Amino acid sequence: MAVSFSHVGICVADLDRSLAFYCEGLGFDAAERHEIGDEFAALMELSSVSLTSQFIRKGEIAIELIDFHEPEIELVGRRPLPRTGLTHLSIRVDDLDDVAGRLAALGGSIVESTRTVLPFGDTSLRFIYLTDPDGTRVELMEIPG
Q: Residue 55 domain-assigned?
C-alpha cells in the first residue's frame, strides 16, 4: 500500500497575518492558492462553503492555511493539550530566543511558563510553546547538532 504525507490544514482568521507569521517568521514559502466553493461542501461536512486555501511549504512540509469566507469561523484560541486531535506543530530552530521574538512580533503569543531546558550530554535542549495569531500551538525546539 502506497501512503505518503500530504499536508496539515489550519483554519485562520486573517490570511495575510498568518502568511507573515509562517513565511516571515519561520521561513515557509507561499505556494498554491485556491478559491474553493460548494464543490467541497460535502467533503467539509457543510451545507455551503466559500474559502481561500493557501498552501505554504518548507522542504517536504506543507501546511494549508484555510481562510473561510462562509460559514463564519469560530474563534477558539489556544486549546488545552490533553484533548484528542492535533496538539501542536513542532519546529526545530537554531536560536530559540531569536525565533520566538520574531514570531511574537508577527502576532504570535509566547507561553513563557512552558520554557524548558533539559541537560543533554555536555549541552542542553531548549523548548518553548507559543501560539500562532489564531491560537494554534507551535513548539520551538533548539537541539544542538
A: yes
**C-alpha grid cell for residue 45?**
461536512
CA 16 to CA 37: how far, in whole Å?
A: 20
| Rounded-to-integer distance, Cα 60 and Cα 29, Å | 12
* pTM, to two decimals: 0.93
Into how many domains does the chain fold? 2
Distances (CA, A) of 85 to 22, 34, 120: 21, 26, 30
CATH number, residue 127: 3.10.180.10
Distance CA 12, CA 64 (A): 10
Q: Is 79 a member of any domain?
A: no
What are the tens digits of pLDDT across the range 122-138? 999 999 999 999 999 99
| DSSP structure string for 88-107 | -EEEE-S-HHHHHHHHHHTT
Torsion of Cα atoms, 119 then 124 then 125 then 130, to 10°: 110
